[in-house]
Amino acid sequence: MRQVERHGQVAQTTAGILAHCGSTLRVAAPLGLGKPNVLLNAIYRAVEADPARHLHLYTALSLTRPRPKSDLERRFLGPLVERQFGADYPDLDYALARARKALPPNVRVTEFYVQSGALVGVDSAQRDYASLNYTHVARDLADTGINVIVQMIARRVENGRERLSLACNPDVTLDILDEMAAHGRPRPLVVGVVHPRLPYVGNEAEIAAEFFDIVLDDPACDHALFALPREPVNDAEFALGLHASTLVRDGGTLQIGIGALSDALVHALLLRQKNNVAYRELVDGLGGPHALVARVGGLDTFVRGLYGASEMVMDGFMHLVRGGILKRRVFDDFALEQALAEGLIGEQLKTGDAERLYAGGALPARIDSAELARLMRAGVLPDGCRLDGDGVVLPDGARIAADLSELQARAALGRVMTGRRLRDGRYLRGAFYLGSNEFYRWLGGLSGDDFDGLSMTRVSDINQIYGGRETLDALQRREARFFNTTMMATALGAAASDALADGRVVSGVGGQYNFVAMAHALRDGRSALLLRSTRESAGVVRSNILWNYGHTTIPRHLRDVYITEYGIADLRGRSDEECVQAMLAITDARFLDWLVAEAQHAGKLARDFRVPDAWRANTPERIAATLAPYRARGLFDAFPFGSDFTPDERALLGALQWLKRHGASRIGRITLALRALVQGAPTPAELPRLERMDLARPEGFAAKLNRGLVLLGLRSSEPL
C-alpha cells in the first residue's frame, strides 16, 4: 500500500514537488475547475525565480476572471468580478503572464483547449497548442514524461471515515495513470489538494487516499470557486433552441455544451414540458416542425424523461432535473436495461415482473452466488439474502427456491420483488463539471437518490462507446442527441468550430469530434451542430454559413444535422445538391443570393434554381415578431435562469453592448463621442446607474466623456 504524505502547507508540498522533479518539471493539471490554483502559482513562482529550473505544464481551459479592455469596462466589471469571485480569488499566474505575452523562457504551457477567443493573438499559446480529441489526451500525454499530476479534490468525513473524490475532474487523471502504467512509464507524483468548497461527488469519482502520494490540506487553498457568469440569450438564440428541442425524443439521451445556445435549448425543453400549448404555437410560428421531427424527435411533454451523458455537466442539467425532464435512469446490467428499454418493466417493480423478466432472459434458470449478488446489487432482492442449499434465505428468515425454472419459485420471487425499486441507476454521467455559483450550491446539496444518480467518470467512458461495454453503452444511450456549437459551416456540411482559416486557435476541438462520430456509430443517434446564422464584426454583418472555409473541425463526410434560428437542415446521407438546398433553407435571407451564386458556380446547384419565397422570410425581424407576444408574457427573459447582474447592471450591460456595436469602426467611435458630449444631465432613473459606474460626479474630460457615452447608451438601448 502506498504511503501517503499529509501536508498542511503549500510551501511544504511545493518543496516536495521540486525535490521529486529536480530541475525539470513536467506537470499535468486538469482542465477547468480542477486546477489547484494556489499550488500551481507556488510552483510557477519557484520556477520563475530560478532560471536553472524548467516547467512544462500540460493542461486545458485555464480559466481567468474577465479582464477589462477599456475604462468603461473596468468601471462595470470591477464590482461585478469582486462579487462573483471575491476580493482574493487567486488567478493563475502563468495564465496572466501568458496573456501579457510575458511568460519567462523557462516556462512552457501546452493546452488542448483554451478559453474561447482569449488567446487568438498570443503567439506562444498558438505555438504550444496541441490539437487533440479529448479522448486521446491521456494516450498522448503518457508519452511526454509527466512527472507530477496536481489536482483539486473534495473531502468528506462521515462517522470518522474520510472520503475523497476527484469531484469536478475525474476525466483524464485515471486514464493517464493507466496509460503510463500500460507502457511501463514511471508513475508520476500524484498530488491531491483539498478544497473545502468543492462539491463532493460519489460513485466513480471517489478515490482512496492511497491513490495519492501527497494530500495537501491548507486553509490557504480555500477560496471562491471559479463560477461562470450566466450569459444573456437573444431572440435568434431562443429561436434556435426551440428548433433544436424538437429533435429530442422522450426516453432518449442528451448531451449539451455550455453557453447561450445551450441555455436556449434547455429553456425550450422546459417550455415544452411546462407550457406545451405555447411551445407548439411557437414552433408553428417559426415555420412548423421539420419533417425530421416525426422520425427522430417529438413535441409532446416528457413522460419517461431523459438520461444525460455529457462530457461537461453544467447548469442546464440542473434545470432539467428540477424541471422533471432529466429523470431516466440507466443501469449497468444489460438484461435489466434491455427489459427497461423494451417496456417490460419499470424502475418500480410490480406484480408479474418476475415472469416478464424470466421470459426475457433477465432472470436465470437458477440463482447461484453470482446471480444472487447481481440481484441484490440491482435491488431486485433485498440486501442480506444468502444461499442455503437449494434455496435463498431472505433477511427476515423467509425462504424461496433457487430453481426459477419452476413456476412456483418464480411466483414466490415475484412476491418478494413487487414494490421494490431498481437501484444504482444513473440519471446523469459526465467527465467534468463547471458552472455558476447556483450550480455549485445545487451539487453540494444533493442527497439520497439524487446524489447517487449522478456519476462523474473518465472521459473515455463518456465520449466514446469503446472499451468492452459497447453494447451496454449503446443501449443506455438510446435515441442519443448530441448538441454542440460551431462557429461556421459550409453549404456542403463541413464545420469550423475551433480555429480560424489561418490556423489560429479560438478554443479547441475538445469532445466535438467524439460526439459527432458517436452519433454515427449509434443506430438511433444524431449529431446536431448549432450555429447562429450571422455574426457582426466591426459593424458589418456576415453570414456564418459559407461556401468554403480554410479550416475544418468536422469534415463534410460526417455531416448530420445543422440548426440555426431559421430551422433544421438534415444532411445525413444527402447528395451535395440536397445538402446545399437544406443549408440555404436555414441561411439568413440577406446572404441567400450570394450563396446560391457560389453553389451554381461550383456546379453544385442547378442553373435554373430559384430561391423559394419562404426562405426570403429568414430575417431577424420575423423572429422578433414571432417571439414578441410571448416575450410580453414573460416567457423569454434575456436571462431565462436568473442573472448575476442587478437591474441597474442589466441596463448598463445593454448600454455597453449598444456602444460596442455602434463604435466598432473609427467613424462610429467619433460619432458616438460627438453625441456623448451633448447628452445633458441625467434623469433620476439614470443617476443610480451612473453611480454604479462611478460617473455620477466625473472629474476631467475623459470621465465626463464616459458619462456622456453611458447616458447615450442607456437612452438608445433596452435593458437586457
Brief digest:
The chain has 720 residues and is α/β, with parallel strands linked by helices. The protein has 28 helices and 25 strands.
Protein model, in words:
The model has no long low-confidence stretch (mean pLDDT 95). It is built from 28 helices and 25 strands. It starts with a strand and ends with a helix. It is globular. The longest helix has 16 residues, at 647-662. By secondary structure, it is an alpha/beta fold. The protein folds into five domains: 5-221, 3-Layer(aba) Sandwich (Glutaconate Coenzyme A-transferase); 229-238 and 250-330 and 427-479, Transcription Regulator spoIIAA, CATH 3.30.750.70; 336-417, no CATH class; 488-611, Glutaconate Coenzyme A-transferase (3-Layer(aba) Sandwich); 647-716, no CATH class. Strands 1, 2, 3, 4, 5, 6, 7, 8 and 9 form a nine-stranded mixed sheet that branches. An eight-stranded mixed sheet has the order 16-15-11-10-17-20-24-25, sandwiched between helices. A three-stranded antiparallel sheet has the order 12-13-14. α25 (647-662) packs across α28.
